[in-house]
Specification:
single chain; alpha+beta; Jelly Rolls; seven-stranded antiparallel sheet; globular; binds 2-oxoglutaric acid
Length: 271
């Protein structure tokens, strides 16, 4: 195991999580966010989506997801969750390489909004060249199967290259592009991961995943923090949406806006 995080980090992942993440492409860490904190973040996420919500694009695929329109740094209230030291520490240890925050957004699926999230991998949608990208999916409410929890295709991150599709393929055939590009993935076993509030899953950007719509009476609420390698280069492809007007293709990401996990851990209160 590569050691990248200090021994006094606010959270140390166990070997099983590392094996799950590296071998199969994802890991679920139960109870990573304590219950009192989850209640606070739930309120903040709901308020922010209420103020600034829009339907998530997912490259043109229809989806039940509603998300915040502005990037996280324009929402003061969400900063603490995006910079959360326990989640950041876990992401970096799983990745096994120095990481930084790329984005953080709240996502709601309203009751009985039953449009699934398309089958996709995140790499195609990510305008970065990086040694590793990881999404942390933080459950802010209980998410049983009928509320539309994530479904992963374990081991799909190990398919042969190229791992990135053209954005035009996503835009023209959003709901089928992943299986059109990599037909063997259609026959991979699928793992459905129900979550308790405070649980967090971490998955690699090359892993296939999707989710069903919300067939329940309660809102499905999650916060997704995307991490990328500390050495990532901003490299948008045709069709990528521009989220940060200040970034120029070919540049490294500036620390003040895309904080390094090592800085988040250095700032974190020690017990
Ligand atoms: O919440 C969902 O339905 C999809 C989330 C997702 O695609 C991700 O976390 O990468």
């Amino acid at each position: 195991m590569t050691k990248v995080t200090p021994p006094d980090a606010p959270f140390i992942v166990d070997e099983q999580h590392i094996t799950d993440f590296r071998e199969h492409g994802f890991a679920r860490i139960p109870g990573l966010i304590p219950a009192d904190e989850v209640a606070r973040w739930r309120e903040i996420a709901l308020d922010t989506i209420e103020e600034d919500g829009r339907r998530a694009g997912m490259g043109g695929g229809g989806t039940a997801l509603r998300t915040t329109s502005d990037p996280w740094w324009k929402h003061d209230t969400m900063t603490g969750l995006v910079r959360h030291p326990r989640v950041a520490a876990a992401a970096e240890q799983l990745a096994g390489t120095p990481m930084r925050v790329w984005s953080g957004q709240a996502y709601a699926k309203h009751p009985h909004d039953e449009v699934p999230t398309i089958w996709h991998e995140d790499l195609t949608l990510t305008p970065l060249d990086a040694p590793m990208n990881v999404n942390a999916w933080v459950a802010l409410v209980d998410v049983p199967v009928e509320r539309g929890c994530l479904i992963f295709l374990p081991d799909s991150h190990k398919r042969p290259e190229p791992h990135r599709a053209e954005m035009s393929a996503v835009k023209s055939h959003a709901t089928t592009y992943m299986f059109n590009e990599w037909p063997e993935l259609e026959w991979y076993p699928r793992v459905t991961v129900p979550m308790r509030a405070g649980d967090v899953t971490f998955h690699q950007s090359t892993l296939g995943h999707g989710s069903h719509g919300n067939h329940s009476d309660g809102t499905r609420l999650a916060f997704i923090i995307s991490y990328t390698g500390a050495s990532a280069i901003y490299q948008p492809r045709p069709g990528h949406q521009r989220m940060d007007e200040d970034l120029v293709p070919g540049q490294q990401l500036p620390d003040h806006r895309y904080p390094r996990v090592s800085d988040l851990l250095a700032e974190a209160p020690r017990p």
